[in-house]
Design a protein that fits this description.
Helices cover 42% and strands 23% of the residues. By secondary structure, it is α/β, with parallel strands linked by helices.
């Protein structure tokens, strides 16, 4: 059973999501305030956090940034009424894993949640994956660099894992989107660029040698 936290200040949406997810046997907690939501998310070890963008006390972007800075690796899906590319990219830069625009279909949202949990549970059989001095523990979704832990989000972990498995291959942005997100963002592949930037930032580009392949995408050397 996945544990979910909904941080949403529109009570009608909050209650609808809570009801729908409980019907699907999710364990659900709720919060309607940004700061209180951050505190609950920091302490609750949630698998998935549904995070509204516009919240009292602390907006969703700041909640997301603070959670990632605190080392929280829950799968974060941003919920927002703002449907433009800038806000999407801003959400991903803050550390979100996915993005759903209101009004949304509860079926679409739960499908994305199920896909995220499926990928989380069905990594390849080997418990460890290595690249240079980087070690991925696939059973616990932990990453170590030179024996020091590195906090990656689930999506960052999956991207790193896929790059290592396909080391030496040029992978298109569309291919990475399809494999790791399971759908396209209306042709906007910059979400891949944002996550590549995050990996380089966290793991040192001199050590994690991800080459940009012009006109195609990326290749791990």
């Amino acid at each position: 059973m996945a544990k979910v936290l909904i941080i949403e200040d529109e009570i009608s949406i909050l209650r609808m999501l809570e009801y729908d997810l409980k019907q699907l046997d999710y364990e659900v907690d709720t919060e309607s305030d940004g700061l209180k939501g951050f505190q609950k998310a920091s302490e609750g070890a949630y698998d998935i956090i549904l995070l509204d963008l516009m919240l009292p006390s602390l907006n969703g972007l700041d909640v997301c940034k603070k959670l990632r800075d605190a080392g929280v690796t829950s799968y974060i899906i941003m919920l927002t009424a703002m449907d433009d590319e800038y806000n999407k990219i801003e959400g991903f830069e803050a550390g979100a894993d996915d993005y759903v625009t209101k009004p949304f279909s509860p079926r679409e949202l739960t499908a994305r949640m199920k896909a995220a949990m499926r990928r989380h549970k069905t990594s390849n059989q080997d418990d460890f994956l290595t690249y240079e001095d980087i070690v991925l523990k696939r059973d616990s979704y932990e990453v170590f660099k030179a024996d020091h832990p590195v906090a990656l989000t689930l999506k960052e972990f999956e991207l790193l894992e896929y790059l290592i498995i396909n080391r030496g291959k040029a992978l298109s942005r569309e291919q990475l989107l399809s494999k790791l997100w399971g759908y396209s963002y209306d042709g906007d592949t910059r979400v891949v660029d944002v996550h590549i930037f995050k990996l380089r930032e966290k793991l040192d580009p001199e050590q994690l040698r991800i080459k940009t392949v012009r006109g195609i995408g990326y290749k791990l050397l």
